[in-house]
Amino acid sequence: MQAEIEAFRDQAIDLSHRIHGMPELGFAEFNSSREVANELRAAGFTVTERAFGLDTAISAVAGAGSFKAIVVAEYDALPELGHACGHNLIAACAVAAAVGLKGVAEQLDLTVEVLGTPAEETGGGKILMLEQGAFIGADMAMMIHPAPFEDASPGFLASTGFSFEFSGKSSHAAASPWEAANAADASTIAQVAVGLLRQQLPNDTRVHGVVTNAGSAANVIPGRSAGVYGIRAQTLADLEDMVPRVEACFTGAALAAGCTVELEWELTYPNVVQSPRLASLYQQNAEALGRSFPQDPEARAFRASTDFGAVSQVVPSLHPHVKICDSPVSNHQSAFTEAAASERADHALIEGAIAMAWTVVDAALSRIDSADDRGR
């Protein structure tokens, strides 16, 4: 199996670089998803494009065994930054691991399915796919994410977000300012209120956002302002407690500025429930390839969110980090975009694919009990 993945090295790296060179936003990954589908089809997988009702979702299946392992691919990019989260590597790593697993599927009584999942950054593609029946019947699900450190079982926060729009009344800033209801002021008040709220938040709770529009001329008091905000917390229960507190910052700001406000909420991403047993297997396999897992304070402090959390609530799951660069370079930075197409990243891609494939094999051999293996 390792030999098959090593033989696929050049194709996997080329796939990673092709996706990296054509960054596409969530639900618009038409070229990237096609590239992944074509590679899997050429490798002998039965491929379904536009799977589960999404134009850029993929299902690719090999084997017909009783143990079903799902390997997850992502390929969406970030606005302006491109692949600053390294989803090109996630996709190529999933394909390479699956190619290796296909050769042992019959021997292991294994079904391996690659799911190409759109819109992880925003849009919750995996959540939408779950609603349409994806991941059902799986004994395990796994993906590998690039980062500036190795971590077999990183923590991921529950998250949600919303767009906001304050509506007031425009007026001439000099001739008749008293006629206005300043929507830009409402955005400012909301930002200040959130900033003050942060003093009372638990350590793992995050509130962050941007104003995307608050007027365009200095001599016009704006009657409209808009933006987007995100909220993250340790668990779904913690997140539910936070939502009304943050919402009050915006309704109160509207009242203070004489405006109205509309909030449009996004899908909620649950926290990731990592399988301790899968994490142990993966770390052993990665260490066998020469990768190390030091006690890294930065790794322990790193917090993000992913729609893979929804998968982990229903299927024994693992979402480890593989190191492709060194701090202070980190995800969602332009320097990470460069790192995601580096020789070091290419090396991590292949070793990550081998470690993931070995972990699937170990899980298939030990027949992990899905009822007891979610670490709850």
Automatic annotation (TrEMBL):
<dbReference type="Pfam" id="PF07687">
    <property type="entry name" value="M20_dimer"/>
</dbReference>
<protein>
    <recommendedName>
        <fullName>Peptidase M20 domain-containing protein 2</fullName>
    </recommendedName>
</protein>
<dbReference type="Pfam" id="PF01546">
    <property type="entry name" value="Peptidase_M20"/>
</dbReference>
<dbReference type="InterPro" id="IPR017439">
    <property type="entry name" value="Amidohydrolase"/>
</dbReference>
<dbReference type="InterPro" id="IPR036264">
    <property type="entry name" value="Bact_exopeptidase_dim_dom"/>
</dbReference>
<dbReference type="InterPro" id="IPR017144">
    <property type="entry name" value="Xaa-Arg_dipeptidase"/>
</dbReference>
<dbReference type="InterPro" id="IPR002933">
    <property type="entry name" value="Peptidase_M20"/>
</dbReference>
<comment type="similarity">
    <text>Belongs to the peptidase M20A family.</text>
</comment>
<feature type="domain" description="Peptidase M20 dimerisation">
    <location>
        <begin position="160"/>
        <end position="250"/>
    </location>
</feature>
<dbReference type="InterPro" id="IPR011650">
    <property type="entry name" value="Peptidase_M20_dimer"/>
</dbReference>
<dbReference type="InterPro" id="IPR052030">
    <property type="entry name" value="Peptidase_M20/M20A_hydrolases"/>
</dbReference>
